[in-house]
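Quick question, first post here. What does this chain look like in 3D?
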Amino acid sequence: MKVWPGTPFPLGATWDGQGVNFAIFSETATKVELCLFEGPDGNRETARMVAPEQTGGVWHVYLPQVRPGQLYGYRVYGPYEPTQGHRFNPAKLLLDPYAKAISGELRWSDALFGYTVGHPDADLSCDGRDSAASMPKSIVMDDAFDWHDDAHPRTAWNNTLIYEMHVKGFTALHPKVPKELRGTYAGLACPAVIDYLRSLEITAVELMPVQRFVQDKYLVDRGLTNYWGYNSIGFFAPEARYASAKRPGQDVPEFKAMVKVLHSARIEVILDVVYNHTAEGNQLGPTLCFRGIDNASYYQLVPENQRYYRDYAGCGNSPNMMHPRMLQLIMDSLRYWVQEMHVDGFRFDSASTLARTPHGVDQLGAFLDIIQQDPVLSRVKLIAEPWDLGPGGYQVGRFPILWAEWNGKYRDTVRRYWKGDSVQTSDLAYRLTGSSDLYEQSGRRPLASINFVTAHDGFTLSDLVSYNDKHNEANGEENHDGTNENRSWNCGAEGSTDDPSVLALRARQQRNYLATLLLSEGVPMLLAGDEIGRTQKGNNNAYCQDNEISWINWDLDPPHQQLLDYSRFITNLFRQHPSLRRRRFFHGRKIRNDKNKDLSWFRPDGKEMTDQDWCNPETHCLGERLAGDAIEATDEHGNRIIDDTLLMLFNAHYESVPFVLPAHRPEQRWELVLDTQEASGRREPSPALEDDRYVVTPRSLVMLRIRESA
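> Answer (accepted):
Ran it through. Tokens below.
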């Protein structure tokens, strides 16, 4: 086979129409071998050649005979000195960190470990068994795809409604998706799915990890699965399990086709990406990729003993964000997903880890600084999960401009309020109005706050209002995993019950949470299935449940269908009222020549809240008036509206509360828009209120708007 020197860039395997250039970085290696494979299982090694050139730490070779579809891997030579941070072992076949697709599944065996499993010296020993038969293989890809006129929707943040979903779980049981497409990228592109998302006014799907990940050995040994996928090994390659076409490499065009269809419906695609650790784990983990290529460059090691890894995510290792090649890898990966796969943004798992320097979490860390000036990535949606498990890792409100954040304080405060806990009402007010206490000082706006009540990690909404305690027994960890989110829900019998009063309260609380989420300033994120009352039977850590516990059940009985109808009504309200989608914070000042301020808070007696009211932890009832701009709009019935002033009345108390409605001009009337006491959320027709009072029933939320004769 002809072997040419090739070039050190671009990194990865690049097909140029005549041959393939292979380039891989390893700063400390003494030799790099490229191995080619073929055969029905991809395990027959047909060629092995030494990379003839090394330029600036990049080993490269060009093969004019090789074509797209070729399977390959690397063997990297160098010192095996774990205490010095080096774990080279050429007996271990390694994935290309820049592989655009990966073929086959990892088959767990002791040969995957760089050390001899069971040896008295543990990872200080060196294992000489060949791991190729157990390893998946990298695939040479041709990036060509007919995107036609596809374009990023670029939905403005203030018009964005995010829907967090799992590629497989969303369609695994969907009756309107063809069986052969269920649980796949192609399944998400089916007309029934698109129509459903549009009916909920969804503008962006946030896909749980779709970068290639590994099934953890401890789960496989217990007959379980890493369902969520937070265990990445290939930052460029889509997860092949979600492809309906099972030929190696077909996951890439299928993913692109899914994005193209979603874009045609004006729905953005946001990826949940996991760069804060890799599937190689700690010093006792397998050697699959980075560890065997250049352990000391890719990972943060403990300076006093480089045998061990720093671990800020609780998964065994953390990336070395101080090394320029690790930074380049992540940045190249992100740009690839935007430019070649056409995704619209990213949610960064445990993002605080990526901002870490030797001095802790640094807002001026290299990763955040590079993204800030990157001409591609600075234009897409960037969402941080702003915490990790390391010291000072809780960084809610501290990411820089351009970034939005999962607002964990919003989730916690809103849950506490509707659960009936004693809560400082001022904290609730901040959460309802975009969390200015977290974001305003740094120059950010309400749109930096990704508001959510539930997410993949924790109870579903139905379970949140149905269980006092977690029930994770199916995970095989004796229910020790996960956190006890509710402690005491006081919502009647736990789990399944036939008590009508308990069922009615649970249903109303779900409506309260959904309404609060969609009526708060900021960017709402809805967990897939919450709109139809999806349950995991009390499991709040279903990361290993690739089955009916996690999959969405589309067989809707009347109560679940009723909740879906209500959810569509609520999302329509969000879309209909500009006052709920403000770009800037309220300031409590008068607007126009009106006597009303842009934001006012009221007690049930109709008087404005006092300092004493704000400090009272037992204040469970309050009113919020948003004075909207004069607008020309129509409501859902086609009636003309020329004022978008809204009034929300919150009652988390267990008794009814009569609210005195704030005064208005003589020609105006308050009109009822929403009352969560009603199963549908509304009364038909919506009454214009002649009285100056409205009785808010126990644990209910009411929304009214100004009806003004034109």
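The chain is about 20% helix and 20% strand.
Residues 159-431+445-513+529-558 form a domain with the TIM Barrel fold (CATH 3.20.20.80).
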